[in-house]
Amino acid sequence: MENSKAVRDGDVADVLWEKGIKILSGVLYFMSGFVLSGAGLLSVRLPLSIGLAAACTGTELICAAAGGMLGATLRLSSGELLNAVIPLAGIAGIILILDKAGIKKKRRVILSVSVFVLCFGCGTAVMFSEIPSLSAFILVLCSSLLCAASVTFYSGTVDCIKKKRSPYMLDNHSLVCIVASLCTLLLGASELSLMGFRPARFFGCFIILTASYLFSRSGGSIAGIAIGACIAVSGTSVALSICYGICGLLSGIFSKFGQIICALIFTLAAGIAALLDGSEEGLCVFAEAALAAFIFAAIPRNRLSRVRNNILNPKVRRIESEFGSAGERLLETSRAIGSVSECVANVSKGIDALCPANDVMVCMRVRERVCNQCQLQNTFCPEEGEFAAILEKLADGETIKAEDFSQNFNAKCPSVPRLADCFNRIYASRSAVNALQANSARNRALACGQFDWTAALLRELSEELGRGAQTLFNKEKCAARVLSEHGFEVQSISCIQPLSGAMRLSCVVDEIPVSTSLSLLTAALSTELEAQLNPPRIREVRSGKELVFLRKELFKIRMGSAAASCGNQRLCGDYFECFQTESKAYIILSDGMGTGGRAAIDSTMTVELFSRLIRAGVSLDSALSITNSALSVKSDDESLSTLDVAEIDLFDGSTVILKAGAAPSFYTVSGKVKTVEIPSTPLGILSNVKFNRYNLKLRGGDTLVMVSDGILGCGNNWLKDEIRSFAGGADACGFSEEILGSARCRCGEKFDDMTVITAVAEEI
Questions:
Q1: Closest C-alpha among 666, 672, 739, 668 to residue 706
Q2: Which residues contact 759 (CB under 8 A, 6 or more apart)?
Q3: N or C: which end of the chain has fewer CB within 10 A?
Q4: SS3 221
Q5: Residue 279: which residues within 8 A CB-CB, separation 6 or more?
Q6: HEC states along 675-724?
Q7: Angle at 636 (CA atoms; ends 630, 642), nearest 5 degrees
Q8: Under DSSP, is residue 689 helix (H, G, I), strand (E, B) or coil?
Q9: What span, in angstroms and rounded, lies between the C-alpha atoms of 253 and 264?
Q10: Which residues 6+ apart lie within 8 Å of 322 measured at CB?
Q11: Residue 6, pLDDT score
């Protein structure tokens, strides 16, 4: 019961809190509308409350319009009152129509144009009802343009308030909107004065101090100049207004020394300006600056410092620390697995050290079983080299007989037949043990290799996480703004550029507006993000729909292939795959040892495993090592296969050719055919295998041809001529078939497995 009562009390408190927030929000919009109803700019009254009303909807619209109406009634003359009230009523009606019609796309543009038309129409009508003149017409035109422009920055500010955006995650557009909104509020409140003390100037000083501390010298100087300009046009002397910009710059420069130093420098600069001015207004400006500095210095330091650090050292620091901690854990795991490998290697060395040489072991066992039981063991010793000759014959595969021993030995030793039989049996047994030990050592080496490559893979992941994916925060905010302008309700957005991939923009929205053109949206995002994007991939997620935009490739790769098995067998010993990731194209070709089924199994296993690892994001070297280990333990029989890999960057054409025992490859550059022939070792022979690399750069129209060794059975000069004549033609598949046919004709009926892969680069 007590728990349920506590829950009900908590619910009531939450409801009261929400209602209180709504009431305070309504009061804020009402007061803002009241202050903006007659903002003074030199000799002109600007009804900027119209722009605020145009930026609001629902309850906020009613409060802002009511405040604007009341302020206009109390503060404006009859002509100015008509110029404020009629556009306010008109814009409220237009907003209601747009809401009922469900129009979200280009809403801000429609409202800005509507505000201009209403203000200009009413202002012109009022002007002609009085004394029309060219100067009055220009003032009406300028004031109408300013009111229309105010819709943009008020909308940006209202959007930040509604979405509760953190102050240190604001983009440049949002910052400009907020600063412009604050400046207009200062203009509206600038005429309020209490014995020379103006709240607007005091509030402006506080804003300058906060901006200089949070945004360093740039924020202080920009805020100082903007607020100084507003104060100047509201009636304060120009000399004193200029001092706001200087004070902001100086306090921004010294902001790195702390909050109190920043406040003292601002107060000192304002005091010097007041002394130089020497007027009563200058003393008021100094008093306002000193009071603002005192209140600013009283703010808890940890709150402002945290915001300042997040602005000057953005969220990247937190992301890097998160990536870094994960990277450190991976690195520790890598070291632990590496130590297991070292332990296995040390144990293996210890076992080998404890096991004597094979010949010594055989002689020891023979002596134990025969010589130690002989009555002549203390009086007769075989001559040096006697047993060595016997062991040589055993090593050659011969069976030992009594006559294989020397005559002198036969004359003295009574147990020669037994000795020969014991040599044969012990050596055969020892050979079997040696085979088991060799197999055990091989398995230990393979285990060490697996641990080593697992440790290397974890180390690579640790390094990549340590560097972190490059998160493009400003682009996220720009993209969110573009999506909002196209009518999307954005729930979350992420723009990253992985170290091993291309830029990726992912956003989750409530729904896709019916009137939205995805092609126009893609074009707008491409312009805003300064990167050509592909149309989005759309998929349903739990909270709405996810749109994924990937950077558009600059190159397209046309692929063609042809293959033939040895003697037209059912299975071909060559196997290949061609595929693309988000940023690269891959060609993977393998030639298994021999022909037929076993070769097909080896090559297929090599390509399938290697390609899966690459698709999973494993590096080329680590994928090679893992594939080599898997091929080594596939069966007791020897399994060999070559590996030929081409990695093509789809954004700049950079290509890496990697070979492990593979046949030469060929590519064209400006019509010339070049050969990539690199000596290397196939997979399955050594426990530690490495790629040999060759770097090149493909351009539009260049061709890359990869072949298995069966194609080159009759040399490669003819193949170069074929590639030169192809010159990046349209039909890559047809060209591959031509090469295969030519190779079969040249090699005759007895030909090896043959595979040709042609890749033609095209600029998009």
A1: 666
A2: 557, 558, 559, 560, 578, 585, 587, 646, 648, 703, 704, 705, 706, 732
A3: N
A4: helix
A5: 237
A6: EECCCCCCECCCCCCCCEEEEEECCCCCEEEEECHHHHCCCCHHHHHHHH
A7: 50
A8: coil
A9: 12
A10: none
A11: 44
Asked whether 521 and 482 are in contact (CB, 8 A), the reply is yes
**Encoding tokens for residue 233?**
């046009």
Q: In sequence order, what E strands does 489-642 have?
A: 490-497, 504-509, 537-541, 544-550, 555-564, 574-580, 584-591
SS3 707: strand
Cβ–Cβ < 8 Å for 752, 595: yes
User: What's the pLDDT at 581?
Assistant: 82
Return the half-sphere exposure (C-beta side, CA atoms, 13 A cut-off) of residue 47: 37
CA 714/CA 733 separation, integer angstroms: 22
The tokens for 12 are: 């009531």
CB 470 within 8 A of CB 504: no
Q: How far apart are CA 722 and CA 375, in angstroms?
A: 84
Instruction: Kindly provide the b/e burial profile for residues 193-216, where b requires at least 16 CB atoms within 10 angstroms of the residue's own CB.
Output: eeeeebebbbbbbbbbbbbbbbbb
Helix 238-253 and helix 280-298, axial crossing angle in degrees, nearest 10: 30
Cα separation, 18 vs 318, whole angstroms: 32
Give the burial class of 134: count Cβ atoms within 10 A of its Cβ; 0-12 exposed, 13-18 middle, 19 or more buried.
exposed
Distance CA 430, CA 359 (A): 9
- In contact, 643 and 574? CB cutoff 8 Å: no
Residue 683 to residue 628: CA distance in whole angstroms: 5
Q: How many CB atoms lie within 10 A of CB 55?
A: 29
Angstrom distance (rounded) from CA 145 to CA 147: 5
CA nearest neighbour of 409 among 425, 389, 393: 389
Please report where in the chains the tokens 């003390």 appear, as a residue.
197
Task: Give the tokens for residue 173.
Answer: 């557009």
How many other CB atoms are found less than 10 A from the CB of residue 472? 19
Cα 494 to Cα 473: distance, rounded to the nearest angstrom? 8
Pairing of strands 490-497, 504-509: antiparallel
Over the Cα atoms of the chain, what is R_g? 42
For the chain (length 764 residues), average pLDDT per consecutive 10? 46 68 82 75 66 82 84 74 80 84 77 86 81 79 82 81 61 71 72 67 76 70 67 58 72 77 82 76 79 81 62 46 52 57 57 56 73 67 67 77 77 77 76 65 63 67 57 74 84 74 82 85 85 87 87 85 81 88 88 79 87 82 82 67 91 89 89 88 78 89 90 85 80 89 80 88 83
Tokens 């306002």 belong to 288
Q: Which two three-digit tokens encode residue 480?
A: 């969110």
Distance, CA of 47 to CA of 44 (rounded, Å): 10
State the pairing for strand pair 584-591/574-580. antiparallel
Element (DSSP H or E) covering residue 24: helix 2-36
Beta strands in 364-503 (DSSP E): 470-471, 490-497
Q: State both tokens at 119.
A: 């203000």
Q: What is the pLDDT of residue 644?
A: 93
- The beta-strand segments (E) located in 503-653 are 504-509, 537-541, 544-550, 555-564, 574-580, 584-591, 643-649
Residues, the chain: 764
Rounded Cα–Cα distance for residues 659 and 346 (Å): 32
Residue type, 97: I
Amino acid at 176: V
